[in-house]
Amino acid sequence: MTRVISILFWLSLAAVLAFITLPLLVVVAASFSPTATVTFQPFEWTFRWYGDLLSNRWLDPFLTSLKIATVVAATSGVLGLLAAYCIVYERLPGSDVLMSYLLSPLSVPQIVKGVAIVLFLSMIGFQGFLGTPALIAAHVVLALPFVTRMVATSLANFDANLDRAAQILGAGKLQRIRHVLLPMIKPGVLSGVTFAFIISFNNIPLSVFLVRPGDSTLPITVINYLEYSLDPVMAAVNVASMAFILVVIFLFEKIGGFSAQIHGGSK
Amino acid sequence: MNLLDIELVSVSKTFANMSVVKDINLAVPQGEFVSILGPSGCGKTTTLNMIAGFNAPSCGDIRVRGRSQIRVPPERRNIGLVFQNYALFPHMTVNENVAFGLKMKGAGSNEIALTVKDALRSVHLEGYGERYPRELSGGQQQRVALARAIAPRPSVLLLDEPLSNLDLKLREAMRIELKEIHEQLGMTFVYVTHDQEEAMAMSDRIVVMSQGSIAQEGTPAQIYRDPKSRFVADFIGKSNILAVSDVKPNGKTAEIVVGNDVRLIARAPDDDRPIRYCSIRPESVSLGAVTASGEDKSNRINAVVRRVINLGGSLEVLAQLSEELHLHILVRSSRSTVAPAVGETVALGIDAADIQTLAE
Ligand SMILES: Nc1ncnc2c1ncn2[C@@H]1O[C@H](COP(=O)(O)OP(=O)(O)OP(=O)(O)O)[C@@H](O)[C@H]1O
Ligand SMILES: [Mg+2]
Fold first, then answer.
1. Which ligand 1 atom minimizes the distance to the CA of B55?
2. What is the Cα–Cα distance from B81 to B21, expressed in whole angstroms?
3. For the domain bounded by B238-289+296-358, which CATH number is listed?
4. Rounded to a whole number, what is the distance in Å from the CA of A258 to chain B's nearest CA?
5. In sequence order, which residues have a C-beta less than 8 Å from that of residue A121 and are 6 or more positions away?
6. I need a labelling partner for B340 at 20 to 30 A (CA). Which of A6, A164, B180, B261 fits?
7. What is the pLDDT along chain A (267 residues), one digit of tens a residue?
8. Domain B4-230 adopts which CATH fold?
9. Do the bridges between strand B18-29 and strand B277-280 make them parallel or antiparallel, or are there none, so unpaired?
């Protein structure tokens, strides 16, 4: 019986993984397509399209996206950490209300949010903010609930006895935060920050309202390009940005030492 | 006069209308090993937390070396604390854990290294410094927690049931080690436990707590020999508690009646509160068939053996004295001991001094 269950488990896991990865594999294959239309020819392939990526047409939006995502990750990391700290750890009055308020953007569709921001900016006469500043602000609003939630979870799991242990050993509040609290919740904060980076880097529905022509993010540039042509360059862009995201995740994992941290492992 | 390290003066603690600690007075001289002993939920941890400073008393004063600590935060009380669940920092090595207190005090790195080494040596964990807590057994983690607490040389060390997560063998070994460390360091230890054997084995003085108040305090021998209440008699060791229906004082002794018609000569009470119960330790009753005769016991009573359990080194006998009066008796047994048979009538001997009268 358990055997059957275990076989079923592995089969469904394989199905899910296939469902996720096969479309990606098609994109990867397409990015090596030898012809200018997207075809699948397993024995002929070329790196030509990747060469095209190094043109300003793709490099500029990439750098814009990278810049925005970095600022968004850092900002929402700091804000999320502060918010979660005040709500979960200090239990400031009104914490529950504040938490619901911080999570509320989750329930508004991104398109609605995008329209609202554009309208708001023009109402107060700040159209000049459109482009990078508006994108950063909007992405922070989008990412903050996730970051706050993740940090809040690791704070809730933090053993208050560790804080007391540090305190009775003579550590003042700031020392306890620095030497005990932050190292213990670092994995949660870093996952939150990684998440924020990816949310910003990949965002389309919100960004589409806020980009300024000539200073577009990578996903928006891809969308615009797709309106006119579907060619292997497209696939190459997507594969490259996928690879980039994987590298980012890997790097955060490295500095966070996620698994090691969770088990209190080696440095 | 000994310098008092810790004083609790009429300390009470109320949580949301629930009185958890009630008017406790306690004075601990420097270097003493005091145990706070009591059943679960009687307020031991709450009391310890007030000494450490994590909880403020609702009223009363807490003094360390004569100085009120009410306004002093825990980090400036110079008190060590060993937690029940160890509370080691999982992201630090053993060395870093033990060094933490010294680092917070701003000690130099040479001094830290030396002290850490010393502390680890005194808990027999040399060579474990580079490990992480998760790479240690429960007993080893407990030792690290101890080393971490003693490394900064606090004036007072508080221990909250530090051995309760260890198995029996390790617990017994750690008792001896704790006692040795206490003697080595000369620090004041306040040790919280619900295990009376532990308290008996280590303490200079035991404070028995019950429902937020101190039921009795004294040396382990005093507490064991002269329990002042049914609660203490029953909680410290095993005891036969019998209801007393009549008392006739007679100088140093008193004649009491238990179980309707059994008359016993008991030790006269220290105060003149009415006697309601008496307590007889199982091991203070001698069994005619087992012990050598000729001993002069104040009380000689016949009883019927109802149950005999052989515990190896001793026999646990249930003897019936009258219709509804039973005594649990514990006698040492050796190779030559002939165990009494169930149903046999035996003569019990009890010294008057071993019958403790109780008012409550
Ligand atoms: N923060 C709190 N709020 C409300 N009640 C509390 C609080 N802390 C403790 N209590 C109550 O106070 C009583 C004593 O608790 P305490 O932890 O001091 O017991 P203890 O003697 O240490 O017991 P144990 O041996 O189980 O650890 C308990 O009934 C507990 O429910
Ligand atoms: Mg407790």
1. 1
2. 20
3. 2.40.50.100
4. 12
5. A127, A129, A130, A134
6. B261
7. 788 889 999 999 999 999 988 888 888 888 887 777 766 666 677 788 888 888 888 899 999 999 999 999 999 999 999 999 999 888 888 888 888 888 888 888 999 988 998 899 889 988 888 889 999 999 999 999 999 999 999 999 999 999 999 999 999 999 999 999 999 999 899 999 999 999 999 999 999 999 988 889 999 998 888 888 778 888 888 889 989 999 998 888 888 755 544 444 433
8. Rossmann fold (3.40.50)
9. unpaired
The two three-digit tokens of residue B6, written as one number? 């810790």
Ligand 1 centroid distance, CA of B58 (Å): 15
Q: In chain B, what are the domain boundaries?
A: 4-230, 238-289+296-358
Does A179 reach chain B within 8 Å, measured CB to CB?
A: yes
Q: How far apart are the CA of B86 and the nearest CA of chain A, in angstroms?
A: 9
What domains are defined for chain A? 55-263 (1.10.3720.10)
**Ligand 1 neighbours by CB, cut-off 6 Å:** B 15-16, 18, 20, 38, 40-46, 194
Report the separation in Å between the CA atom of B14 and the middle of ligand 1, taken as the mean of its atom positions.
11
Identical fold between B4-230 and B238-289+296-358: no
CA of B49 to the centre of ligand 2 (A): 10
Q: Closest-CA residue in chain B for A173?
A: B75
For A106-257, where are the alpha helices, taking DSSP H only? Answer: 110-123, 132-156, 160-168, 173-176, 182-202, 207-210, 218-228, 232-256
Determine which residue's CA is closest to atom 20 belonging to ligand 1.
B41
Could you tell me which chain B residue has the CA closest to the CA of A184? B91
Helix, strand, coil share (%) of chain A residues, nearest 5: 80, 0, 20
